[in-house]
## 1
Amino acid sequence: MAEHGTTLSHRKIYILPTKQGYAFVLLLLFMLFGSINYNNNLAYLLTFMLVSLSLLSIIYVYRNLYALEITGGKCAPVFAGEQARFVLTLYNPKPLDRFEVMFTPKQRPVSNIIHIQGFQTLTMTLPVQTHQRGHLTLPALKITSSYPLGLFGAWTWISLDIDCLVYPRPSTEAPPLPTHQAEGKGMATQPGCDDFLGFRKATPSDPPRHLDWKSFAKGQPLMAKQFGQQLNPHLWFDWSQMDDVNPEDKLAKITYWVLEAERQQVSYGLQLPQMKIQTGHGSYHKHQCLKALALFNVHRTGDSRE
C-alpha cells in the first residue's frame, strides 16, 4: 500500500550477489580447488580470507540501507510534456554515513546517487517526464546499494503516495482571445487619449486642441472631441461554444486562453459541463481554472476522445 513516508526495515531489504559477485564466487571456487589440489596452506589462507571479506561486505551493504527514512513532499503543478519534479526528504537516524545509495523510478533507467552523512536530513528531487493531463503518481522507487565492494547488492521497492497535478498542454495553434463577454458584462471605457469616441458639449476646461472649430465656424454649437480607451471585457470561456470535435483540443485552446488572459490581466470565467468558475484573475484563479481543465472528465459530457 502506498504511503507518504516509509522506513527501510530488515523485512524490506533484500540482498543478492551482483554480476561482479558471481564472478568473484567463481574465482574463489577455482582458488579453493587449486588449494586442495596442491595442498598449499598459503592458498588456503588467501582463499578463506577473501571469503570472509566477501561475507563481511554483506553486513556493510545491508547496513547502508537499514533504517533509512524516506518521506514524500509536494510537487508543483506542471504542463503536460514537462518534467514533474517530485521532492523526497531522506533522514539518516544512525551516526554512520550512507554511501552510493541509488534511487531509480520504475521504467526509468537514470538513477539518483546520493551520500547521506550520519544524522543528516537531505532533500532530493526526482524528475519524471509527463505525457498527459491529470494526476501523475510518483512511480514505484527501487532503492539499491552495492557499497562497499560491489560484490553484493541490497535493494528494495517503495511506493509513496504523492502525486503531481499535470495541466493540459497549451495549444500552439489557438486563436486569439475570444471577444464574447461574461454574462451580464458590457464593454466599459475609461478616460484616455487613445481612441476617438465622439463629440460632447464643450466646457471651459476643455483644451483648445480638443474643440471642433470647423463645426463652430459653420455656425454650429461649440463641441469638444471626446477620447477614451476601452477596457478589456470580462471574457467567458464556454466549452459548449467551441466547435472542436476533439475534447483534448478544446482543453488545449482553453488552457492557452487562460494563460493569455492572465498575461493581459483580463478577468475571465470558465464554463464546463457541470462546472462553472466565476470571472476573476490572479494566480489562485488561474490555478483553479487549470486544475478544473486538468481533471475534467470528457466521458461524462457525452464526448469521446478521438
Note: Residues 28 and 50 are 8 Å apart (CA to CA).
## 2
Amino acid sequence: MTNEEILSYIYKERNHTKENVDNERMKKFLSKLNNPQDNLKFIHIAGTNGKGSTTTMMASVLKNSGYKVGKFISPYIICFNERIQINDEFISNEQLEKYIKQVDPIITEMEKENNAPIGFEIITAIAFMYYYDNNCDIVCLEVGMGGRLDPTNVITTTLVSIITVIDFDHTKFLGNTLKEIAEEKCGIIKKDKITVTYPLQDKEVLNTIRAYCAKNNNKLYIPNLKLLETLKSNHNINYFSYKGTFYKLNLIGEFQIYNALMVIVASNVLINLGYKISFSAINTGIFDAKFPARLEKFEDYPNLFVDGSHNPAGARSLKGFLREYKGKKNYAILAFTKDKDYDSFIQEIGSSFEELIFVKFKNEYKKSEDTENLLKCAEKYGFCAKAFETIKEAYDYALSKENVDLILVTGSLYLASNFRDMLTKE
C-alpha cells in the first residue's frame, strides 16, 4: 500500500456512535485484538505544548540505555510512518499494510454495529500491536488530545505519567478554563503510580495536578528550578546545569530546558524502579534528541527557522526566543488550522516582525484558515501583512527583502510539514 492508500483507509468515513463514554469503543476494539497494550510498559505524556519534544527526549534516553523503545507521536511532519517508531526507525508501509489487514475484519464487524473505531483509534491500536509484536521494553506514548478520553488512555501498565505545560488549546473539547483543561489532561494519572510535571505550571493548573495525584495516591515530582543554572540558551544550543551536572540540548528555545528537566527527573524515577539508566545515557540521550519543526534551524543567513507552534502558549514561547532578534529585520510566514486561536497568536508575536506573510497549507484532512481573515486580524493590531497563494511565493517574497535577519515559519505543524517538504524537493 502507498502512503495515500494507507491514509485513505485509516481516515475513511465509517459509522460510529458519537457517544464514547470512558473510551468504551477503543476498549472493545482492542479486546478483539487480544489487548496487546496490556503486555507493554509505558511512559505516558500529556499536556498542551512540549509533548512531542518530551516524548522524543525520553525515548532517546531509554534507547541510549540499551532498551528497545517504542515511540508514538502525533501529528507527523516528515511522513505518516513517523508517528509509530521503534528506536527512531519509522514503521514501514509493508508493516502498516500487514496490520491494516489484521484490523480490517474487526473494523468491518464494528461498523455493522454502528460503532467503528475512528482514525486515531485505528492508528493507536496498530501502534500497540507493532510494539507488542516487536517485544518493546518500554513505550513512550504521546497523548493525541486531552487525556481522559484520549484513545491512548486505555493503558493500565503506566510506569510514569508526564504532564507538560498546560495552557489554552482545543477549548471546544477540553473546556474554557485552565482548571477544566488540566482536569482532562490529568485523566492519564493512574492509581498508585508516579507523575512528573512541568516546573512552570500555572498555579491553578498545579493545584489541579496535586489534587489528582493525591486522589490517585501518586508521588508527584516537579523539577526544582533552584537547582537549575542556564549557562547558554540561544538559536544554536541550550547548555545548562541541573543538580551540578552539565547538559547540552540540541533542541533550542529556553522552554526545551524545562522539558529536558522533566525527562531527567523521570529518568531518575525509572532508575528507582529498577531500570538501568546511567547519567551518561541521560546526558547523551538528551543531546541526541532531534525533533523536526520544533524551532528547527535550516539556514544561517538569513536565519531560517521552522516551528510548529499553533496556540497562544506556543506563541509566548516563541516570543521568548525572538528576544534574541529584537530590533532586527524579521519576517514570519504563517498559516493556521480553522480551529485555532490565530487572533491571540498574531497579537502575541506580531510586533516582533517587519511583516507577517500569510499562506494556506495543503492537507486532505485539515482545513487551513482563510488568509483574508488573517489579514484582517493583522490590520486590527496595526501589523504590516501580506498574503500569497503558495508557500514558495511567500518564502521567495521574504528572501527578496534586503538585509533579512530572520525568517520564521510557524502557526501550524501542517504548514511546517509543507514547508520542509518544499525545501527538501528544492
Note: The chain has a mean pLDDT of 95.
## 3
Amino acid sequence: MTHTRSILIGTVVALLAVSSGVAHAEDGPSIPPGTEASASAPVELDANDPDLKLPDGATLAEPKVLDIKQVVEDQSGDERREDTNSDVKFALQAEVLFGKDSAKLGAAAKSRIAAIADEIKTQNATRIRVFGFTDNLGSSAHGDVLSRKRANAVHGVLVQELSDSNVTYEVRGYGEQYPIADNSTEAGRKKNRRVEISFPRTDS
C-alpha cells in the first residue's frame, strides 16, 4: 500500500506542476504515468488476504435477472410502448383518443385500441390494467373524474374487442398523479395527458 501511495502522490504532484504552468528544462516529453521505464509492475493480489474474503457466516445474494426495459415511441409521440421482462405497457396520448376535455372516443381512436387488443390476444394476457392520467391544469378533482371517464371509455372498447377472452380488468383514473414529463411545459403536459394499457407478458 505504501508503494501505491507514493506513485499516486507523485502523479498528483506532476499534474499540479503541469496545471500551474511550472516546467523544468530537464523535463522530457510527457510520458503517461505508469509507463516509465522505471515503473514497477501492478501490485499482486494475495488470494488469502482476509480483506478479500467474506466474513464468517456471510453469503452472496442469490443471482437474479435484471429487469430490462425497452421503450419505443412513434415519431409523433402519440403512442409509446414499454416492454420489460414481466410487462407490456402502451401509453396513448389523450389528444389522439379524445377531444379537449372529452371522454368520447372517435373511430380512429377505437382502431388504435383494437390494435392493442390484438397484442393482448397474442400475449394470452388475462389481467389488463387501464389507467387514465391528466396534466396539472385545472382542479385536481376535475382531473380525477376526467381521467377515470377516459379510462372507462378505453376499457369499453377492450371489452368489445376481447369479448371471447377470459379477461379481468383494473380500471382507474389517477388525474395529475404520476406525471411522466414536466408539467411546466405544454410538450410535457401533452405527454402526461394519457391512457395506459398494461398487462403481464408471456413467452408466446
Note: Residues 81 and 120 are 13 Å apart (CA to CA).
